[in-house]
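[User]
Protein folding is very new to me. Any chance you could explain this protein sequence and its C-alpha cells? I have pasted everything here:
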Amino acid sequence: MGIRRSILEICVTAMRMVSRFPEAKEPRSILVLRNNDLGDLVIVTPLFQALRAAFPNARIVVAVGPWAKDILKNNPYISEVVECNAPWNNHHAGPRSLVRPLKYIFSSPEMARFKAENFDACIDVVGSIFGSMFMIKLGIPTRVGRKGYGGGHTGATAFLENTFTTSVSEGAVSYVRLLKQDAKVNFDLRPQLFLDGAEIEEAEKVWKHVEGADNNHRPRIVVAPAAGIPEKQWPTAMFADLVRRLAKETCGCVLGSPDNFEMGESIVQQLDGWSNRCGRASIRQSMAIISMADLVICPPTFSMHLAAAFNKPCVLILPAYFDPKEHAFYWEIKGVHHQLFPRNGEKHVQVMDVENMATSLLRSLREKQVTNLGSDLL
C-alpha cells in the first residue's frame, strides 16, 4: 500500500470515528454505488435481483454515471436509477486527482441530494477509499464495502475480503449476505438487461435494412471494435480484413460511439449487407441490435457483457498483455465467451483464427437450428 493510500485510509478511519450515524436496522432504503464504466455496471446486474429477493419491500436506488443510466431502464428489481458524477473509478473522471473527489464528497450539490434521502444502507460495489468517504459523509448507518482492493474498508460496517476465488458478478451478489445473513444468492450470474417490445421491433427493422431485400437469411454479426483503453483494441485493419472475409456469407453491424465512426467506416468499406452504426445507435439501440444478432466479435469491453446478457456467442479477442485464464475466471460466461489469445509471442490474434472461430460458431448455430426445427416438425 502506498503512502498516499495509507494516509487516506487514516482519514477514512477518522471520519468514521467522529461521525454520528442513526441506529442500524433492517434497511428499508438501499443505495448501490456503481459509478464505474459501462461493462462494470452490466456485469453486476444480478446483484439487483438478489437485493430485491432479500428485501422485497425496500426502496432500491442505484447511483451510476450519466453515461450508464440508460442501461438499467426497465429493470424490474430497481426502484430508481439516479445520476452520480462521482469522479473516481471510471474513464470519465479524467486524470487521477485527489482534489476533485474530495470536492465532490464535501461540497457538491449531488451529495446534498443524496443525504436528503436518508438511506439506511449503501453498497459500494468497487470498495474504495472515496466510496467509503461518500457513505460516511451521507451518514448512512450500514455501509458495505470491500477489503484489499481499493481501500476504504475501515469506514465500512461490513465488508467482503478481496479474494481470487470468486468472479466479479459472484462477488457483487455476495454483498447481499452482508445485509441479510440468510439471503438467497444462488441466482443466474449472467448480466440482466431488459428491452421493451418497441426497442426489439426497432432493432429488427435495422437488421432488415442491413440485410436488404435479397438477404436469404444470412447470419447476423455484430462487430464492436473499440475499447475503453487503446491497449485493449485489436487493430482496425485486422477488423476490416476479417469483415471482408466474412461478408459474402454474413451480414453485420459495426457498433460504437460517435468517436468510432471513422473506424467503423474503414471496417465496413461499403460492403453489401454491412452497416456502420457507430454514433448512430444509442446504448439502448445497441443492446437491442445485439439481442437480435447471431454472433458478436469484440475485444474485452462493454459489448462482451451485452452478448452475455442476451446469450449470444461472442468471439472475444484478448490483447497480449492479458492473462487469459484470469480474464475468463473473473469476467467471462462459460458457453457464451470464446476467447482468442495471441500465440507464440505474437502481438495480436491472427485474422484467420478469428475467422475460423466465427465460422465454427455460426456452423454450430445453424446445426442447432436445424435440429430444433426437426424436433418441432416431429
In short: The chain has two domains: 3-179, 197-377. The mean pLDDT is 94.
